């Protein structure tokens, strides 16, 4: 009986070792899971690196009429920039010994901001000054001529040479006579002749030297030394300039925007890199000379004149306004963006404005408004926007390729749209039906 029951059992060993249906199913499930993970990762990566496509609508402004305000003909958004941002560089190579400014400090033109180590430049200046002094002394010597003692010594040398020449002549005559009598050899006569010729040559040399000492230096010699002195003066002036350049001063009055060096760091006259020697020490700008940089659509560009006036507002202080006027229009358009860059000068800048702030400009018509009996509040632009652009009392403004989240205050819906009391000036491009995942600063792309 037991043997019959055992014979009825299922043998699973063969299925396990042969990779049967259950093992195959497991691998299929693992493969599907990997595909899902890879597909999800690719989707996330694509979403992180691609711009979100959005539809935009422009905030419209309408003039209520009357008052002294001019009509708004165009609104644009951009950024505040410094008209002239200067990177203050060193004219010489050296190590920073002292730095006297911090980011945000106000400096005046000519104020010392950095000192470099100057020991080497002082030594080079001292060496050049010594060379100049030597040449000046040499010129004085040539111009003063020979001293009486030098002339007397040269004359005495000539007299001594003549005496030696006379002795050599007498010796030669005696030797020649004795040699003719056979007393002295031919070689002795040759020696006497050589000594006499040498004495004659020495007298001629001493005579010429005496004449030179007596006459003094030639004009050409003096001119040559004068030329060397001028060259040495140039070297001294250059070394003095190099020494002066170890003191770096503010070229203009302004505010320090960035400080890139510390005490002990090396600066050079050319850019090396972030980890090497620094090509400049600070950057500064005059914050009393600001511009608003705008990209105006080519479709709206014809509404503006070369000196168009406007009203400037910034996100940080929505209740404040500044006067502006077009100061610069780019001579060429941007083909990719279909825009023209315009810079508006801030006519009344103050401490509230900072470079890189978001700013809006409402350009005003040049036509003078007609007088009317409207209330004192008349003339203020009223802004209307589509209700679909609002999410929780916030709108998303498209600036360039990114969005800016801005809170607004509305007063009700009208036939023209939702009336905005605060937060917009009109002309802003707003995202319609902003997606839930849309956040401030995200990259977007307008739907074509």
UniProtKB/TrEMBL annotation:
Ranges annotated as spanning the membrane: 27-45
Cellular localization per UniProt: Cell envelope
Signal peptide: none
Region (Disordered) residue spans: 1-20
Gene Ontology CC, one term: cell envelope
Domain CusB-like beta-barrel residue range list: 292-364
Stretches with biased composition (Basic and acidic residues): 1-15
Stored InterPro entries: Beta-barrel_RND_2 (IPR058792), HH_YbhG-like (IPR059052), RND_pump_MFP (IPR006143), UPF0194_transport (IPR050465)
Protein's UniProt name: Efflux RND transporter periplasmic adaptor subunit
Organism: Paludibaculum fermentans
